[in-house]
Each structure stands twice: as C-alpha cells, then as structure tokens.
Amino acid sequence: TITFKMDGQCYYNESIAFFYNQSGKYLATEWNTVSKLVMGLGLTVCIFIMLANLLVMVAIYINRRFHFPIYYLMANLAAADFFAGLAYFYLMFNTGPNTRRLTVSTWLLRQGLIDTSLTASVANLLAIAIERHITVFRMQLHTRMSNRRVVVVIVIIWTMSIVMGAIPSVGWNCICAIKTCSNMAPLYSNSYLVFWAVFNLVTFVVMVVLYAHIFMYVRQRTMRMSRHSSGQRRNRDTMMSLLKTVVIVL
C-alpha cells in the first residue's frame, strides 16, 4: 500500500507507480491486445513521419531552387517533426507496462522530448506564417531576409523549445508538492501543464490569424486583378505562387 507523506517532502526516490497512484492515473501492469495494436500502429506512424520529414530535408538541401529563407524554415519544421517522430518512437518503447520500469529522471526525459518537439513544431509554423505574411504584403515571392537572420530565428526556436521541455526536469514539477500533480502527466504540476498549453495555444492562434489574414488579402487582390486586363497577369501569378506556398505549409 502507498502511504501519504507530509507536504514539502520530496519524492525523488519513489517509483513511477507511486506518482500514478497518487494522481489516480491508471498504470497498466501487462500488455493486452489493444495495447500491442496501439504500439504497433504508433511505431509505424513514427517511422513514416521520420522518413517523410527526412526526405523533405534532403530535398531542400540538394535542390538549389529551394535555397531561400522560406525553405530553410520549412526544413527546420521538417527537422522539428522528425524529432517529434523520434520522441514518440522513444515513447512507444517506454509506455504501457514499460512505464513502471522508468525512473523519475527517465520519465521526465520521455515527456521533455515530446514537449520540446511539439513546441518546436508550433514555433516553426508561426515563424513561417510571419515570413509568408511579410512576403505577401510586400508582393515578393521570397523574403529578403538574410541567411544569418534565418539562422538566428532557427536558433531562437530551438533554444526556446529546449527550455520549455527542460523546465520540469530542473524544478517545475510536483515531486516536492505531491498534491499539485496532474492526473494527465503524474510527475508534472498542473501549473506547468497550463502554462505549456496556453503558450502553445496562443502561438497556434496567432499563426491561424496570420494565415487567415493572408488568405483574405490574396482573395481580395486576385478578385481585383481579375477585373483588369492581362497586363496585371504577372502580379496575379505572383500572388498565386505565394498562395501555393502557404497551402503547402498548411
């Protein structure tokens, strides 16, 4: 049986089962048919995601036509999604009954990898949305952003994502405040989960607003251009090319 301890005491030496029992989250003891099917499907999806995004990165690297800031950001998005596939691949081997074998450190590592990859993906989508928003409203197919600035943006994205994923491991968890543990992620505090969810939700909403603004602007421009002579065809083709890249990103 599990005995409750005084508040303020830390539980670094407790098993993962202890935290799951405290939070009321079910922890499987053996593999059943459904769990095996989920694991098999999950591993298949992870492998597909990693291969698909690896192909995107290779295609952008070897094709000189794609050596522009927007495609560097797309390659970084592919890298984030590749990392997400890798993180979930690791999760598949450390979930279900295998969760019981994890230590506090390895459990936090497992979740931290997922949080980092998801934050990086959402942040990359926002960076691409901002880049497309700038190019559309300046009537350019490719932004004039320098390669150095793109590298700075990519470094900022990954630094922020790693920090977001590492925060629970360096202290923002419920190991020393057992009553604040989440029933979704038993070693995470509810406050961190709310912070992480709100941060990514706000980022996603801003991205959606930017893309909605782009679509409305492009739609209005193409409608106005269609009323004029074919002399405006070059501008119309530019707008359609911009719209195509936005659709590809989405």
TrEMBL record:
Gene3D superfamilies cross-referenced by the UniProt entry: Rhodopsin 7-helix transmembrane proteins
Any one GO CC term of the record: plasma membrane
Keywords, ordered alphabetically: Cell membrane, Disulfide bond, Endosome, G-protein coupled receptor, Glycoprotein, Membrane, Receptor, Transducer, Transmembrane, Transmembrane helix
Highest taxon in the source lineage: Eukaryota
Record GO terms (molecular function): lysophosphatidic acid receptor activity
Main location per the UniProt record: membrane
InterPro entries to which the protein is assigned, alphabetical: GPCR_Rhodpsn, GPCR_Rhodpsn_7TM, LPA_rcpt, LPA_rcpt_EDG2
Membrane-spanning ranges: 37-63, 70-91, 111-130, 150-172, 192-218
Stretches assigned to the G-protein coupled receptors family 1 profile domain: 52-250
Pfam families: 7tm_1
UniProt-annotated location(s): Cell membrane; Cell surface; Endosome
Topology in membrane: Multi-pass membrane protein
Similarity remark: Belongs to the G-protein coupled receptor 1 family.
Descriptive protein name: Lysophosphatidic acid receptor 1
Organism from which the protein derives: Clarias magur
